[in-house]
Amino acid sequence: MKANQVRQVADDVFYVRGTNVNWYLLRDGAELTLVDAGYPGDAASVEASVRLIGHRPEDVRAILVTHAHVDHLGAVGRFHSRYGTPVYCDPIEVGHARRDYLEQVPVRTVVASAWRPGVLPWAVRAARSGGTSDVRVPQAQPFPTNSALDLPGHPVPVPTHGHTSGHTAFQLPSVGAVLTGDALVTGHPTSRRSGPQRLPAMFDHDRQRSWTALDQLAELAGDLVLPGHGQPWPGSISDAVGVARTAEEPRQHTG
Ligand SMILES: [Zn+2]
């Protein structure tokens, strides 16, 4: 973990860049909320990022996960076993986090797509970071409420189902930011574009619903987009959705 991988992007909001994936730290005095947790290979870096902003891992009151893909759960087990940190997600995502079922792109699909630009190097790096390991979170719990959570940053869960069945974004009304998870990203090694976009289709469990999920995001107030992959985007969330949709329009209309 290098210092330049951690950046304060709003009051008490820290963006951390891991292995092709982001996580965020929300601060309230001495306490933190961790949103998403990197790849298994990022687990030590997640802890290092907490220390880098001057905190101890014990200060993390809870981990929120946008969805239960392996690149967002990496440090959850470490924090649970070492510090007893609870982990929360959408009620629909709990079964996925517990691995009662799996909604992640199968390795065979990645292999079949290896000819596409960026896919092979991304897959190699993902595998090296623990991307094919069996990560399950038996202690995952549903959010205690579906309004503002009583946690540092007071994040408000925004159901944005589609990328996975229980994918959730988080609105941070006090700073005018939206953590969009993988419902809306701003870049990915397997995409040739940068800027607001959906992930390539193979990563979405339900491609149609992930399109509809953009409606939920577009309605939110916020002028800072904090995605699960890619750089933070300084613009309104509704504009970001507009950019993502426009980029796909030719394909949408010729289908
Ligand atoms: Zn992801």
TrEMBL record:
What broad taxonomic lineage does this protein's source fall under? Bacteria, Bacillati, Actinomycetota, Actinomycetes, Jatrophihabitantales
InterPro entries of this UniProt entry?
Metallo-B-lactamas, NDM-1-like, RibonucZ/Hydroxyglut_hydro
Protein name stated in the entry: MBL fold metallo-hydrolase
State the superkingdom.
Bacteria
Q: Any idea where the Metallo-beta-lactamase domain is?
A: 20-229
Gene source species: Jatrophihabitans lederbergiae
Per its UniProt record, what Gene3D superfamilies does this chain match?
Answer: Ribonuclease Z/Hydroxyacylglutathione hydrolase-like
Which SUPFAM superfamilies does the entry mention? Metallo-hydrolase/oxidoreductase
Pfam short name (any one): Lactamase_B
